[in-house]
Amino acid sequence: MAAREVAYVIATGKRTKWQYFDPSHYHSILFDQRGSGKSTPHACLEENTTWDLVSDIEALRQHLQVQKWIVFGGSWGSALALTYSQKYPERCLGLIMRGVFTLRREELEWQYQKGADMLFADYFDAYEAVIPVNERGDMMKAYYKRLTGDNEEEKLSCASAWKYVKKAEDPKWQVLALAFARIECHYFVNGGWMKEGQLIEEAHKIKHLPIIIVQGRYDVVSPLKYSWDLYQALGGDKNPNTEYNIINAAGHSAHESGIEAALVDAADKFKLLKG
Questions:
Q1: What pTM does this model have?
Q2: Which residues carry out catalysis?
Q3: Which of 13, 187, 204, 275 is in the most buried spot, having the most CB atoms within 10 Å?
Q4: How big is the CA angle at 133 (ends 128 and 137), to the nearest 5 degrees?
Q5: Checking phi first, is residue 236 left (phi over 0); if not, alpha (psi -120 to 50) or beta?
């Protein structure tokens, strides 16, 4: 394994796709973070923080005897990629990130309190409906109270509404929806267990690394400003190590053709990196 480049693909609760990386060149490593996928105990919130995940990633690197690797992540995975690389920059060959998310309060409130509702009012009504009016001043807190409570029916109702996942009404999806909602809300209501703006403030720790950012122009989940702020914190166009790509006809999904093409191109460029 150490004889060739290693692309580490961060799973974001569901298994992240690895097809962007040429298997003849890369050894892709995927893992299910605590409480998700095949990790047990399922949906457990105890000892489940961003820093626990970072420790897990580093333990995985040591276990696999990888000296350095490329860190890849999109959306929540980009926040985890940034956290890991800022703590262990000496273990990173470079980063590829898509739909950047940095855990700032304004980012969380955009999606879960006020902002995205201006574009998706029809969905947001259902999201608000499960919370009493007098608790809607802090929707994440109100959801967390119910997702970690003892009322099983209320838990499932909130899990379905958390991400507007209507499939959660189907019993076969309920377990997955509950795990997703509980873990995500757990992380967000606690601000990722880091100080406000930390991932932007500490971007200087990785500005020497090759970094490629892929951003959809019409990303509503992670609006362009999040990745733009990171790009500027990395030195912007004055930093030759950082490449910033805006995909004009795209949003947040990694499956959009423009995003996919840009990620494959980034992976191909990183073939030149040597550990």
A1: 0.93
A2: 75, 219, 252
A3: 187
A4: 80
A5: left
